[in-house]
Fold this sequence. Notes:
Elements lengths: L6 H25 L5 H25 L3 H25 L15 H24 L1
Amino acid sequence: MENRLDPEVTELFREMAALQRMADQLQVADAHGGAGVAQERSYALRRAAVAQCYRGYVEQQDPDPPALAEALDDGAQTALRLRDFDAEHGTGRGPVAPGDARWAGSGGAAGYVRQEAAADRVEEERTAR
């Protein structure tokens, strides 16, 4: 009998592995003079997007209150870091700037992550052509 993971879990694992590779690359870059803003931003976006996916998965699947609290906190913190990074560096790609009032607080910051992830996908598709 074959034991298969839920496709959502498989995709989450893939994203986490890609995120770890990016973290490793950032460490190497830091050891050789530092990563650039684009590389740091790419990591911050991917990290925030993975945290949002994990948060959604835990909300649906895990009734354990400490796990849910941890996922909610991680999702909120990574979203705020991305929003603040983009505000500081002017690196946002979506149509609504990171300083806009609709992105206030952690709930708004989660929406900002969705906007930026969508803008990133559009850019990837455009450059792939």
